[in-house]
User: Fold this.
Amino acid sequence: MGRNHKGRPINGWLLIDKPSGPTSTRVVGRVRHLLEARKIGHGGTLDPLATGLLPIALGEATKTVSYVMDGRKTYRFTLRWGQATRTDDAEGEIVAVCDRRPTAEEMRAALPGFLGTIEQVPPVFSAIKVAGRRAYDRARAEESFDLAPRRVEVLAFDLIGCPDSDHASFEVSCGKGTYMRALGRDLGRALGTCAHIVALRRTAVGPFDLSRAISLETLESLGHSAAASGALLPIETALDDIPALALSETEANRLRCGQAVSMLARSHRESIRGVDNGAIVFATTGGRPVALARYEAGDIHPVRILNL
Assistant:
């Protein structure tokens, strides 16, 4: 996820409120340029049409990206009833028109069918690889191909507004890999019509939400000082849901050298209470991050060392 570049060694998380239009990659490139960051990555791609929370990892924070991407995500989107597009959003050409417009009562009745673990066929315009090539490249070349359904988890799906008969807005909380464009497309089909997304906004990713996000314009005004301002969040902010274990400096040095550390001493017994065998833990010393480690049979084994 992260890349090594010449630049400044900045460590932490920056939350960007992405505008509609640019790709996530372009936003990351802009942040890298503004901060002259040596290493950078992001916690989950947003479509160009989409706005909202784009967590950006800097330096050693890139080692924690997977824990953010695996977390729960929350979106708000607006559907346009009666039109299907090639991309399942407003950026694609219209490929079908339907006369039917569902009522709010019909929408609410259909939503429980999309809760829990469901099978979802991703949009053909997606980054999924098909025989070594991205699906969107094959779709643009008008090649014929099928995408296999994937199991995704939808934790909540609520109707939040119907501004007119052609549009409805929803809020969704879901697990990793859930496509909102596919969810909107499939909801339309379940209601006997067609639909596509005209607005999409991500409001939360794992432990992060928009309350601490800043715009690209704000970042540009901060310049290099953004790394020293309250905009940069500590690495451990991404690890709120992972058990934390405080080590002595000697134990921390053992972990840094790739050696296991026993948690069976009386001083550690309380901290490992309730930690499952095989679980990932967050090791610290003196309040400083040391490593992500795996707890196994009374010992912790280093998984990712944080060089801070």
